[in-house]
Every structure is written in structure tokens, then in C-alpha cells.
Backbone:
């Protein structure tokens, strides 16, 4: 009976560890920065592995992946032919340093605060 209890306890610890590690590589919700390079407000919305970036009337959708302290953001190439394609999207495209706090994220040193 004690052996079964130990096995169950170990299984629970492993399950909790897996859930915790799985949640580390994702973000959810909307984050904003008011004044990215003086270009006005920027919103980043994360859902699953998707990212939507909005700056004024300009909007782009892509994917992201977090690996430890790095984030890789990729926008489809067809966005580059769009006249509304912004330098912001070009700057966000690719791999960057990443930090996540309780109410903010930092991508490449730029801080985005969690929107209410």
C-alpha cells in the first residue's frame, strides 16, 4: 500500500512539472506600448502560437515561439508587398531577447505592458 502511495505521489509531481514547463513557452492576452520609436501606440495580442500586431490602422498576423529567454516572431512574406507594411513589423520579425514579468513583457529591450 505504501508503495502505491509513493508511485501516485511521484506521478502527481511529474504531472505538475509537465504542466508548469508546458505553460512556460506561451503568452496570452494583449500587451501595449505607447510610443514605439515615436510612431504611436502598438498592441501585441498573443493567442496560442499566434501573434497579432496592431499600430494604428496597420495590422499584421504571424506566429511566435519562445525558447528560454528568446522569442522568434515570424510574419508571412506576403506582408512585405503590402503598402502598409511598416518598419515595426520588419523590426519585430526574427529572434529577439525576451523577458516576461507579472504585468509586462520585453521584446528586444522594448517593454510592453499588459492591457486591461
Residues:
Amino acid at each position: 500500500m505504501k508503495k502505491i502511495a509513493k508511485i501516485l505521489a511521484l506521478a502527481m509531481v511529474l504531472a505538475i512539472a509537465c504542466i508548469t514547463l508546458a505553460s512556460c513557452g506561451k503568452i496570452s492576452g494583449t500587451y501595449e506600448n505607447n510610443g514605439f520609436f515615436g510612431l504611436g501606440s502598438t498592441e501585441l495580442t498573443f493567442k496560442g502560437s499566434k501573434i497579432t500586431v496592431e499600430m494604428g490602422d496597420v495590422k499584421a498576423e504571424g506566429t511566435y515561439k519562445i525558447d528560454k529567454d528568446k522569442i522568434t516572431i515570424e510574419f508571412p512574406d506576403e506582408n512585405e508587398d503590402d503598402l502598409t507594411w511598416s518598419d515595426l513589423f520588419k523590426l519585430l520579425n526574427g529572434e529577439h531577447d525576451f523577458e516576461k514579468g507579472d504585468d509586462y513583457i520585453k521584446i528586444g529591450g522594448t517593454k510592453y505592458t499588459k492591457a486591461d
Residues 33 and 112 are 5 Å apart (CA to CA). The chain has one domain: 27-114.
